[in-house]
Amino acid sequence: MSSAPARPRVRKIFTALATYGLAALVAVVFLAPLYLVVMTSLKGTTEAGSMSFAPPENWHFDNYLTVISTGNALRALGNSVLIAAMVTAGTILACSLAAFVIARRPGRISGGVYSYLLSGLIAPFAFIPAIRLLQEIGLGGSYIGLILTDIAVQIPFITLTYVGFIRQLPREIDEAALLDGAGSLRLFFTIVFPLLRPVTFTALVLVFTYAWNEFQNVLFLIPDADRWTLPMTVFTFQTTHSFDYGLVCANLVLTMLPVVAVYLAAQKYIVSGMVAGAVKA
User: Fold this and answer.
1) Model confidence pLDDT, tens digit, residues 230-255
2) Cα 171 to Cα 149: distance, rounded to the nearest angstrom
3) What is the CA radius of gyration of the chain?
4) Taking Cα atoms as reference points, which of 256, 204, 211 lies closest to residue 80?
5) How far is CA 3 from CA 158, 214, 251, in A?
C-alpha cells in the first residue's frame, strides 16, 4: 500500500534530476568556449597556441593593454558604437512604423508586403549586387551604406515580430485616440509605441547584438581599415601564416563585453515582454 504514493515522488525526483542534468549539459556547452577564450586571452604567445583549457602558467593581463594600444581598438570602438546605435535606432523606427500599418490596415497591399517580408526571412544576402548598388548611388565604402545594408537585413524579422505584437493590442485604443483628434503619427508615437516597449527591448537587444558582431558586411562593404568595427580588429594580430591567439582572444573578450552589458541591462524587459505578449487579449 505504501509503494503507490512513492511512485509519483520517485518520478518527480527523476524528472528534477533529468532537468538539472540537461541544464548542466547546456551550461557546459555554452560556457566551455567562453572559458577557453578567457583563459587563452591571459596566456603568452607560445602557450596560447596550444588552445588548451589549462589555466595559464604565467598570467598575461598585459594582453588587454596591448590590444587597446596597438590594435586600433579605440577608433574601432567608436566605429562600432556609431554603426550599432544607428542600425538599432533605424531598424526599430522603420520596422515599428511598417508593422503598425500592416497590422492596422489589412488589405491586398499590406498582405503582399507581409508575404514579401516572409520571403525575406529565407532569401540569401547577395554581396555583389549590394556592393554594385552602393557604388552606383555613391555610398560605396561609407558608414551610411553599411548602416542601410544592416537595417535592410534586419527588416523582415523585426517587422514581423512587431506585427505579431501589435495585432494583440485592442483596436479600441486607436479608435479612442482618433476620436480625440489624434493624427496617425501622433497616434503611433504617443499611444501605440509606448505599449510596444517589451517587443522594442527585445528588438533592441537582437539588432544591437547583430550590428555589433557583424563581420561579413563590414569586410565586404568597408575596404578602409580605419572605418572597421571592433570585431574586425582581430586581423591586426594576424601574421603571414598564423594568429597570436592570446591577443586574438583578448580582442574577442573586449568585443563581447558591450553586448553582454546591453543584454544584462535589458534582460528583465525581455522576460516581462514575453510574458506580457503571451497574455494580451
Assistant:
1) 888 887 777 655 678 888 888 889 88
2) 34
3) 24
4) 211
5) 54, 58, 59
